[in-house]
Write a structure and sequence with these properties.
The protein is an alpha/beta fold. 34% of the residues lie in helices and 15% in strands.
Amino acid sequence: MEVSVLNRNGEDTGRKVALNESIFGIEPNDHAIYLDVKLYLASQRQGTAKTKERSELSGSTRKLGRQKGGGGARRGDINSPVLVGGARVFGPTPRDYSFKLNKKVKQLARRSALSYKANEGAIIVVEDFTFDAPKTKTFLEMGEKLKINDKKALVVLSGVDKNVYLSARNIQSAKVIMASQLNTYNVLDASVLVVTESALNSIDAVLTK
């Protein structure tokens, strides 16, 4: 699949680049996508939910009533879960929600997500660019010329570019990442991908290992 290369003003440069078929032209694997997105969302969870257990509550340990004959459930001290204000049984404790996913499955998921975008024609390849200074106005002007301001855009660069990143930081519908940070969730969450030429080479290097 060949895609025309545009400059940051949205003009066709007359050049085309071939998208790697092993990355942008595979049969998408929906289950791999599901697993990778699940891992990404699970890793975002803080996992700090906590309730006090019986041993952590303050209160006397004196047994309040007799063991049998009361007509109700057995209970011991005032911290018993049976009583109002008592402890919670099997409440949440701090934990790590992330889980292990094989590297090849992650790569398959990312290739599948990129293939979906390529099939939708939602990938724009632009010449490598930078901004002289971090200005939101400059980024919006570029977005208008590329016709992406009304879409949720993911801009993929080959490396760190502080000026471009800061220029897009205040724009809710745009996100700037490096090719090495590309993940399945971000690709699927965006309506359109704006990828620089050098970022394409970086994506090839990462996903063809």
